[in-house]
Request: fold
Amino acid sequence: MKCVKECQGEVNAPPCGVDRPSYLKDFWTYDECCTELYASRKGDDAAEAGVPDDFKCTHTDPDLRTAIERLITDSERELIPKYLRLGFHDCVGGCDGCVDLKNPDNNGLLEPIEEIAPIVEVFKNKYSRADVWAMATMVSAQMSLGKLDDDGKFVIEAPDGITFPLSHVGRKDCEGANAMGIGGPKVEMPSNDLDTHGLLDFFSDEFNFNASEAVAIMGAHSVAIASRTNVGFGNLGKEEGWVCHAEEYILNNRFYSMLVGEDGDLVNSAPNWTQEFVNNTEGIEFVDEETNETEALGPGIPNRYQWFNTDKCDDEERPIMTNADMALVRDFSGHISVDENGTPGKVNCTFKEDEGEGEDIRRRRGLRFGISAQNIPEACPIASETIDIVSEYKEDNEGFLHDFQAVLEKMVENGYEVKGNVLYPIDN
Ligand code: HEM
Reply:
């Protein structure tokens, strides 16, 4: 009767014939546990007839964190970026355990929502769905700390003092979503084409983040993959993201190394970036590198402008950035607009000055070809409020991780205040 023992407090009992995913095999729902305990006291027939409401079951305190760790391990760590992103999207407008999948900005979040649904179910008498999702966000950050060993195997290695606990619970689930958390209120996500002030204002208004916190949270893109078939960014058929070897899912300061150069020469020694138009017209065919199958772009994905880089990674990788990422180091205000076909985010300045060509040369060249000097792209102005913070994080990985830990915790408590160790919604 090990199952009963678990009900009374012993952990890691076997599943007693209950069919559930391998990562949940040791965990019980409250109802299953109660029925088992009642059957052991009153017999199977009585239990089958139903457990009376006044029968008290001591619920176990199975470890939610362990269940999520197993889920992520089973996915070969592929769910790490997905729960970090889900945590962000859920917490815009207050963390409430639901996401409106009709909003195309949330494309790609169905998978992590579905994968965690059985865990939500098992723990539903103890934790809200929003608490479970927040835990998944923190566990993902924890599991992304480490490095590859000589055989290319990921080894967890957290710098001293860097852990990602879920410090508080008590988040309330939204109304109007289904049991998995799909639906609920319509929440607008930030534009991918924010300029520096837009980005800082968004994080300040929504999360009460200062400029350093805004820079730190964007470092989450060090583990991110851009899937063109989701939101329209990235390289077709490739598993590439914002940094070299993004698919290693390692959280560190390499996102910042993509954006600035050496101290004292932040601009010229930085990797170079070029903006490109991204055509997401339905039906464009491509070969998926992972499956080797030919696929076609589906409907409804908007055309985009993104930045790409070809001088930083060893292989033929081609990392990307959105305008909102780039806004951490370049100030696009007055330089960004909607193009003639209605695609937003077109920038009319370049990441660096043309190599070997200063202002004078460009002007002279313009005159020679009869082009107005105004029409020759100039280098974009520096984002003076944030570029030095980017550089600090590039130079100090532990400092970054330390700040990232604090800001991620603040993010997953958005919309709540802590009273006596429990979260209470802030009344607006
Ligand atoms: C203005 C702010 C932001 C913008 C415009 C933005 C934009 C994007 C875009 C376009 C994608 C690609 C989605 C896909 O292809 O599936 C993405 C992925 C991602 N974002 Fe952000 N993001 C922002 C902030 C954040 C923040 C604050 C976090 C985390 C705390 C975050 C974490 C991620 C992660 C982990 C992914 C990768 C998801 C995956 O690999 O499946 N982002 N973001």
